[in-house]
Amino acid sequence: MTNSSTIDVPDDPIAALRKRSRILDRLLDEEGRVARWPKRRAQKLIVLEHLAQHFEPGVRLAEAEVNELLNSLHAFSDAALLRRWLVEEGFVSRTSSGSAYWLESMEAPS
Questions:
Q1: Is residue 82 in a domain?
Q2: Is residue 39 part of a domain?
Q3: Phi-psi map region of 90: left, alpha, beta (phi>0 left; psi -120 to 50 alpha)
Q4: Within a domain: residue 81?
Q5: Can you give the CATH number for the domain in which 92 is found?
Q6: How are strands ordered across the β-sheet holding 100-102?
Q7: Is 4 in contact with 11 (CB distance < 8 Å)?
Q8: CA 96/CA 49 separation, integer angstroms
Q9: Do the beta carbons of residue 97 and residue 62 sit within 8 Å?
Q10: 5 confidence band (pLDDT: 50, 70, 90)
Q11: Is 34:75 a contact under the CB 8 Å cutoff?
Q12: Tens digits of per-residue pLDDT, 33-73?
């Protein structure tokens, strides 16, 4: 789901996967949870893609369910920050009221 125009990755797909893997290795803890929120947007997008992979396409989740899912995937206790970024960057959609969230597909957001 990486978009090389959005995320600064090499054109070579193998090099891009290696770079993504190195970034996730630095940002995930031993349990595979996001240990800290990166400062660089390119790294944030890689983390958001990683988080979005835990949503089931087409399944609507209530905000509390999204919080529970995200809390199991990160270690810095800020599910609201992750929800906002997932929506703002187009990884996850939500109703205008914020009562439901869903992943439409695993295509790269534009």
A1: yes
A2: yes
A3: left
A4: yes
A5: 1.10.10
A6: 61-62, 100-102, 93-94
A7: yes
A8: 22
A9: no
A10: very low
A11: yes
A12: 999 999 999 999 999 999 999 999 999 999 999 999 999 99
Number of domains composing the chain: 1
CA pair distance 102, 95, nearest whole angstrom: 9
DSSP characters for the chain? ---TTTS---SSHHHHHHHHHHHHHHHB-TTS-B-S--SSHHHHHHHHHHHHTTSPBT--EEHHHHHHHHHHHBSSS-HHHHHHHHHHTTSSEE-TTSSEEEB--SSPP-
pTM of the model: 0.83
In a domain, 3, yes or no: no
Whole-Å CA distances, 60 to 46, 50, 102? 23, 19, 5
Structural domain including 73 reads 13-102
